[in-house]
Amino acid sequence: MVFTTRALIQMHSWRAGVGRRHVRSAASCMLMIAFVATACAGSDAATSQIATNDDSVEVGGTSPGSTILNAAAVATTIPVAAPTTVPPPTPISLPTVLPEFGPTGRPTAAGEVQVLTAKASVSRPVVYDEPEGKPIPVTYEYLNGTIDPTYDWFVNPTYFGNALAVMVLQGEPGDAWAEVQIPTRPTMRGWVNADDFTWSSSNYYVQVDVGTNQVKVWNGDEVVVDQVAVVTGDVGRETPVASTYIDEIMPGPSGAYGPWLLSLGVFSEAINTFGSAGGLPKVALHGTNRPDLLGQYASNGCIRLPNDVITMLAAEVPVGTRVDLIRSS
To answer: Hey, what's the torsion of the CAs at 101, 103, 108, 111, to 10 degrees?
Structure first.
């Protein structure tokens, strides 16, 4: 086939045009492939900056000047600390509540008592306000308020010639000091040097009920005298209500006192003096020559017991034994 020069020129132009269109199409395809590759790779330098920098950064492939916020800066939350394990509460040990009375009715508070008896070498024990404290005077007060500073009942031997004995309120054998009850009016408490005394104890307990005019005596939890009728103070000469102790034991000074007298460390609160000689109205347990009055209010404040009972007590109950004078009704 013969082509003319013009035809050749036209053909060449057509082919050139077709070639340029194919080149442009190929370039467009390559550019699209590049965009797809960039979007899928996610590992080039521009994309890595988004995951590692908290600031706003330029992202590769975006228009110049445009920025986006780092997703980590928006979505980050404060870490939640694990709760601290709280140990279970420790149970509180509650003190054991003691019953008010023992199995035979003895008050639990009226247990065994310690007793101090003055040594023969001590004529007048010194009483202190506290261990190694200041000496305090032992005085006696009359009902009219008069104070006797020369009270001679806290001496050794006693007024009746017996060794001075006191009931211990605080202290036990081996202690250098002990708090004791002082037999005066009103009743005193004070501290004494235990070196001036000898220790003993008593587990007996005497309870006189002036409401029912009966006496009950325990040796430990054993009842040795059970609700025996007694005589107590008449109107105007009432037996005082008090917690005291037996401070002396002696034979009855006369028939009216029966065979034995157990002196108590307490005084009448109704009588100022006793007898024509103006003696001090000390209260005592003693016998009687009027058993027909037992159960009645007929004494000057002392407690009269049947003679067989007072004889037994004088033989068995030691000096220092606690005696409670109560009123149940």
So the answer is: 150
